[in-house]
Amino acid sequence: MVLALLTVIILAGVRHLGADLWQILAAAGAAVLLHVGAVVAHRRPWVGYVIGALGMLVLVTTPFLGWSPTMLPSAACFPLTLWRLTSRVSVRSSVVALAVAALGIVLTELVAWARLPPDVPGWTRLVEGGLLMLVVGGVWLAALLVRRRHEAGRRAESERLAAAVADERASIRRDLHDVIAHTVTVMVARIEAAAVTTTDPATRRELGDIAEAGRDAHQGLRAMLATLGPAAVAPRADSRPREVPIALDALPDLVASAASPLHAVTFAEVGERRPLSLSAEVAAVRTVQEGITNALRHLEPPVEVTVRLRWTPAEVVVEVRDDGGKALRDVGSQGTGLIGIEERVRTAGGTLSIDDGDDGWMLRARLPTKEGA
Predict the structure, then answer these.
(1) Integer Cα distance of 158 and 126 in angstroms
(2) What pLDDT is stored for residue 237 in this prediction?
(3) Which regions of 198-248 does DSSP assign to beta strands (E)?
(4) Where is average pLDDT lowest: 49-58, 108-117, 295-304, 321-330?
(5) Would you say residue 176 has pLDDT above 70?
(6) Superfamily assignment of 248-368 in CATH?
(7) How far lies 277's CA from each of 69, 102, 169, 268, in Å?
(8) Where are the domains of the chain?
(9) Percent helix, strand and coil across the chain, each to the nearest 5
(10) Read out DSSP for 126-186?
(11) pTM of structure
(12) Whole-angstrom Cα distance, residue 259 to residue 304?
C-alpha cells in the first residue's frame, strides 16, 4: 500500500511536468501488474513472477525522457516476486528466474542508454545497472539461504518427531513384553498345574495342549517384538518415572497425588465401567497422566484440572480439561509426550483430539471397549 501510494504521487508529479496521459496510464498499468504479481506469487510463484516481469517490461518500454524503472516505487515489487519464487521452487528453476531478471536489467539499461540526453555521461547507466544486479542477486541469494535454513529446520523437526515416535513405540514394546508375556507365562503355569492335579486323562491331554499353545504364543510374541525393534532401549533422559500402575483403578490415586492448594485436580467417572483391552487401559492411564502433567507444567497456578471418564457400551471417553490457569508459562521447546500418547491411543484402536479454547485445553481420547471392538 505504501509503494502504491508513492507511485501515485510520483505519477501525478510526472503528469504535472508535462508527460502525456497515455504514458501515465501505461506506467500505472505496469504498477498494477507489479502489485498483482507480488500477491499472486505467494500461491503461484511462476505466474506471479511472469506478471511482475511483464510489468517491468512495460516500464522499460514506456518512453519517458530520462526514465528508469527504478524511479517508480512499485518496481520494488519485482524483487519480492523473485524472493517468493526462489523460496518455493527448485534451485534450478530459481536460477532461470535470476537469469531472466538479469536479462531484464540489461534490457532496461540499453533502453535507458538509447534515451540518454547528451549532457548525461554514459557511465551512469553502468553504475545503475551494476547496482540493480547487486540488488537482484542479493535478493536471490538471501531467499536461497533462508529457504535452505527452513528446509534444515523442517528436516530436524521431522527427525525429532520420528525419534519420538520410535522411542514411544519402544516403550510400548516394553509394556507389551512386561505385561502380556508375564500374563501368558502365569496362565501357562496355572494350566500346567491344573493338568497335574486332574485325574481325567482326556482333560489332562486337553490342558496340556492348551499349555503348549500358550507357550507357542509366548514364543511368537517374543519373535514379533524382536522384529519391531531392539528388545531393550535405553530410557530417555527426560522420561517420566514409570512407577504409576497401568490400571484404571490407579486413576483416583494418580489424580489425588497431583492435587495441591494451588492445583485443584478432580476425578469423575460416569457410566458403568466396561472391560478394556490391555493396550486401551494403558492408553487411558497414560492419557490422564500426560494431560495432568501438561496442565501443571504449562500453566501458572492457580489451576483447575478435571479428569473425567464417560463409559458407554462401545467406548470410554477419557477427558482431561484445564481452566487455562492464571497464564501460560514459557517452558521452552515442545516435548514429545503428546506424540507418544497419540501413538498409544492409535495402537489401541482409538482416536485422540486436542481442543484449544479460550477457557483452557482439553485432551480427549476415545478408546473402544471389548464389547465395541
Answers:
(1) 48
(2) 40
(3) none
(4) 108-117
(5) no
(6) Histidine kinase-like ATPase, C-terminal domain (3.30.565.10)
(7) 72, 67, 18, 21
(8) 1-115, 162-228, 248-368
(9) 65, 10, 25
(10) HHHHHHHHHHHHHHHHHHHHHHHHHHHHHHHHHHHHHHHHHHHHHHHHHHIIIIIIHHHHH
(11) 0.45
(12) 9
In 3-state terms, what secondary structure has residue 361? strand
Residue 304, classed as helix, strand or coil, is: strand
Cell representation of residue 289: 497422566
Q: How is residue 110 annotated by DSSP?
A: H
C-alpha 289/C-alpha 286 separation (Å) is 5
Among 58, 64, 75, 52, which residue's Cα sits nearest to residue 112? Answer: 64
Total residue count of the chain as it appears in this document: 373
List, for residues 181-231, the tens digit of each pLDDT value. 556 766 776 676 777 778 888 888 888 888 788 777 766 766 666 666 554
Residues in contact with 164: Cβ distance below 8 Å, sequence separation at least 6, in sequence order: 336, 339, 340
In whole angstroms, give the CA distance from residue 150 to residue 98: 21
- The amino acid sitting at 345 is V
73: pLDDT strictly greater than 80: yes
Say how far apart CA 69 and CA 88 lie, in whole Å.
26
What is the spatial order of strands in the sheet that 351-357 belongs to? 263-270, 303-311, 315-322, 360-368, 351-357
199 dihedral zone (left: phi>0; alpha: psi -120 to 50; beta)? alpha
For 186, list phi and psi in degrees, rounded to 5. Answer: -65, -40
d(CA 186, CA 182): 6
Residue 233 has pLDDT above 50, yes or no: no
